[in-house]
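User: I'm putting together notes for a lab meeting next week and I want to include a structural view of one of the chains we've been expressing. I don't have a solved structure, so I'd like a prediction I can at least talk through. The sequence is below, exactly as it appears in our construct file.
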Amino acid sequence: MYSKKLNQAKNIALESLKHTAAHLEANAIIGVTVNFTAFSNDIMGVICNGTAVKIEKINEMAEAAEKKDSISTLHVYNYNPSIPIRPMEVLLSVKDAAVSCALSMKDINENAITHLDTDLIFENLFGDTIECKQIYFGGFQKNSRRRTSDFVSIPIPPEELPLKSVKVKIKRYIDHETVIIPHHAEVQGESAAESRTGGIAEFLKAIESFKTAKEIQDYALKFNDAHDEILDSKLMKFIESQVQMERLYGGKPGDYVAAIRELLKKQSCQ
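Assistant: Thanks for the context. Below is the predicted structure for the 270-residue chain, given as structure tokens.
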């Protein structure tokens, strides 16, 4: 009877741990320990501890990102206000003399979009237009505030890279297993140069007074929400790596801002 009650208490404690992790938007718990402790009046207690984490499947984009310069990023500045998602970036990868791309998009409203039928209109460094019709994106995986598709092949030779800009025209999409054709006209935001240059300058000016990488990361997340995620994924990952370094080794005020400036300088030269 005593053993049965302890097992029941352990199960209740584990369920409570699961609920706490779910409240923190975690999808796994690691390092779980269960301890039994004795209180006064012959009362026993059960204590469960663990670390709530969020695990994600390693996809093609993550694997390619580990290889330096294997992925280039183009920001998307056109969008259709009638669609509950907004394309943010097109990621280009070259492998075995073939070019492929993935689409990163931001959820605007609740949706269950699984596939997109798009036309991609690229512009090269000479101002020539390269149009890729009927590019189908699917296999979207959610990462933080965005969803990123699987990589798909596109009919662009590697020698055309690097490309200057891209427009994404969504012709059809599947939401809740229903094919939907957008009817509203697309909207064009600021040009890539105007938007990114002005936004980056504003961001750098704001973080000058910050003393820690964590302060910069917190501000960057809020800044991205307010500016349609103008800070690209490479920069956000770099800031995250600086936060990890700070936790392990510490850092001097100003080091992080200088490192971010250097990264942005290298990106502007590519």
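A couple of points you could mention at the meeting. The chain has six helices and 14 strands. The CA atoms of residues 195 and 230 lie 8 Å apart.

User: Perfect, that's what I needed.
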